[in-house]
Design a protein that fits this description.
Two copies of one chain form a homodimer. With 314 residues, chain A is an alpha/beta fold. In chain A, 37% of the residues lie in helices and 23% in strands. Chain A has ten helices and 13 strands. In chain A, the strands form three sheets. Chain A has a five-stranded mixed beta sheet with strand order 3-2-1-4-8. In chain A, strands 11-10-9-12-13 form a five-stranded mixed beta sheet, sandwiched between helices. In chain A, strands 5-6-7 form a three-stranded antiparallel beta sheet, covered by helices on one side. The longest helix of chain A has 25 residues, at 230-254. The N and C termini of chain A lie close together (11 Å). The interface between A and B is large, with 50 and 50 residues.
Chain lengths: 314, 314
């Protein structure tokens, strides 16, 4: 059998057809129609049909489709309860997709949760019973896997790991609280810290890089730190210390077998993991006494959402 | 059948015999022998024998005994991995108790986890699928119930909810980190805040109360706040704001059906809950949009550990 995985993003809808060994035999993407929920369903259905045809299979061979959606998702009802960036409010996405194409079932999950499931089924946390995934991107996303399944809480809204306050009365977060982990450990937070340091350090080599790139990015400080720029190194050290603080919190709460780090900043790989590992000895309770959580970089990259979605019915 | 519940504390061993309707038909306690692990096992066995006899039942009618122990507990091995206050290190408590008295089985769990289970089975969170319990005492303890079972993580050390940093580089915590929730929301934290306010406000009515009581306690600020003392009210407001911050974090992570507040400070009941409830609208993600976690005061009081321990094999 095959499984369709749909990763619904604010910019693109990415879809893949996965086989039983978690390989994507076909994938593609199409722009997400803006402010047009019905148009999104139609675009999704069209791309599914196209990929199934290109793969040379029939819908009879598709066990189900899984959809990873932003926002709060009601799995039981197959409904996106609320997703502001794509203008969904109590939108019965699963039912509407089933009305368009001959699918046996459609499963729905929050995108960060689906990515965490993908990493457990086919990525960095393969085989873990309990794992936590964080996604360091525009925000800080979170997905919690307990007993091999997505933990969604009593109202499908659990796992907002970026919205743990780590600095009371700290930097304002988009969620309305102050000092959320997301305000420091997201790429947005890193860019803010980089800009603050640039303003304070006119001699930093980061200025030349910013002039060349035309902007400050999440790579500015990491790249220049490797070139020996002291100001850049300070930014990276500060960023890592916030990251360690938040990861230490998650370990003290979950003590997962594996904690997976994904999202754009995870591209730094060992530049993140090497300084984080020793910090975990002091940032986690029982550090050095209990079996430590293994920190790993996500393996599925941009396909995590698609693969996680395709795994939803397994 | 009956179930023995043992709550092993640093000062006392409290034991109860529970019937099938979660009632304690008999309970008692005995001092915990200091620095004497084998003596603890013996005291435990003696009290079990005495209570079984007093209850007029036989060990044949006891399904099992459950033990709630401080520290890190390996449930599978029946071993207390580490508990500094009673000097246990890889101590095979379950096996040793079974060698003393004719029990069919002995289960072991961390005390905060056992209390959380007790509240789910027979207390404030009765029937909840997912719930979180916090204990506001000398420290801040935590227990996580998922799908009706204690969540213990991959190494039996999960649920250290007091050791979530909420103020990076804040007040030093006993665990070695800085700014843990425990450093603010424990009775110890409340007493520290009260003392700081006393030093800053020589006119506060709290001074007279402290002179009368001979000490600052967790009740000083709450009691005088009710009597209109402005300094006391400021302490209470600050304490509540830290409590709300930590509870908001837990809701964003778990979105449990019920969050149970236990421990000495929970005796304030509505004085805690009334100001906390509206704060949750802004401190939790999707507040006002998703079904809110219900905040409740623990119902089992000092028996939570005994009852939770007695429920371990159910």
């Amino acid at each position: 059998m095959y499984y369709i995985g749909v990763d619904l993003g604010g910019t693109n809808v990415a879809i893949g057809i996965m086989d039983e060994s978690y390989q994507l035999v076909r994938k593609g993407s199409t722009p997400t129609p803006a402010n047009d929920p019905e148009g999104i369903v139609k675009a999704m259905a069209d791309l599914c049909r196209k990929l199934v045809e290109e793969a040379g299979i029939s819908f009879d061979e598709i066990a189900y489709a899984g959809i990873a959606s932003p926002g709060i998702v009601d799995r039981e009802a197959g409904e996106v309860v609320y997703a502001n960036n794509i203008n969904f409010k109590h939108f019965p996405l699963a039912k509407l997709l089933m009305a368009e194409i001959p699918l046996k079932a459609v499963y729905l999950e929050n995108d960060a949760n689906a990515a965490a499931l993908g990493e457990v089924k086919a990525g960095a946390a393969r085989g873990a019973k309990n794992s936590v995934m964080i996604t360091l991107g525009t925000g800080v996303g979170g997905g919690i896997i307990i007993d091999g399944k997505v933990y969604m809480g009593s109202n499908c809204a659990a796992g907002e790991l970026g919205h743990i306050v780590i600095e009371k009365n700290g930097y304002p977060c988009t969620c309305g609280r102050k000092g959320c982990w997301e305000a420091y450990s997201s790429a947005t937070g890193l860019i803010r810290m980089t800009k603050e340091k640039l303003a304070a350090c006119p001699d930093s080599k980061m200025h030349a890089r910013v002039a060349k790139d035309g902007k400050v990015s999440g790579r500015t400080a990491f790249d220049l730190s490797r070139e020996g720029d002291a100001a850049a190194k300070e930014v990276v050290d500060t960023y890592i210390s916030y990251l360690a603080c938040g990861i230490g919190n998650l370990i003290n709460i979950f003590q997962p077998e594996i904690l997976v780090i994904g999202g754009g900043i995870s591209g730094e790989k060992e530049n993140l993991l090497a300084p984080l590992r020793p910090l975990m000895l002091t940032e986690s309770y029982g550090g050095g006494v209990v079996k430590a959580t293994e920190l790993k970089i996500a393996e599925l990259g941009n396909d995590a959402g698609i693969i996680g979605a395709a795994c939803l019915g397994l």
